[in-house]
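Most newcomers find our protein records easier to grasp once they have seen one. The structure tokens are whole numbers drawn from a learned vocabulary of backbone shapes. The record below serves as our worked example for the rest of this section.
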Amino acid sequence: MAYIHPTAVVEPGARLAETARIGPYCVVGQEVELQDGVELVSHVVVAGCTVVGAATRIFPFASIGHQPQDLKYQGEKSRLEIGRRNIVREHVTMNPGTAGGGMVTRVGDGCLFMVGAHVAHDCRLGDNVIMANNATLAGHVVIGNFAILGGLSAVHQFVRVGKHAMIGGVTGVERDVIPYGQVVGDRARLVGLNIVGMQRRGFSRDQVQALRTAYQMLFGEAGTLAERVDEVARQFMDVEPVRDIVEFIRADSQRGLCRPQGVNGA
């Protein structure tokens, strides 16, 4: 049987793996599933149709799975799915999906959510994402693998943040951020590439150099962005990081693209 502290409240119907641990003063709702090795340290509330993946740890005063902060929500039976090996620190909040966004909020594996981070309804987060203290996501945001969001940053609804991107602290992100990009500012502007992150994750020198050249071409002054994307694709489509950016730019977007200051009206 799962370990349940005597002061915890676990509603009938909750599905608990035998190796789950529920600490003092936690509350677990009747439609919650806690998989192998999940630990609720203390004073954690997990509600709604929420699945917490194996080996995830949730720290005190986190509120997980309560109804979305969306006035359009009408009580639909939406879900929150949290992957494996995540760390969810104090006062983090995560909300399930809505009918207007696919009915599910999904968090990948191996992510770190520092104190006060917020994941709103219908967000999709990849693996190994880091959200620093009080970083916040509005609804329908998509975050790629290994992206890092600095403290006190805020991402507008429907924005996409590409894999390996870096969002600076106290940055407001209103437009999509390309994979491997770095953005900073009161209203985010692209300031370069996350080269340090790429080096730490084992990208080769040739890949980094190709990406630097492609970046300079993409955000140059000559021609339209579409023309520059086509030229970069023609020259570098066999380089994985460049291909990631080309495919990201060509994909559908509701928010436009975050660009360097002064480039094409940005």
User: Anything to note?
Assistant: The helical segments are 195-200, 205-218, 225-236, 240-250. The radius of gyration is 20 Å. The first strand starts at residue 3 and ends at 4.
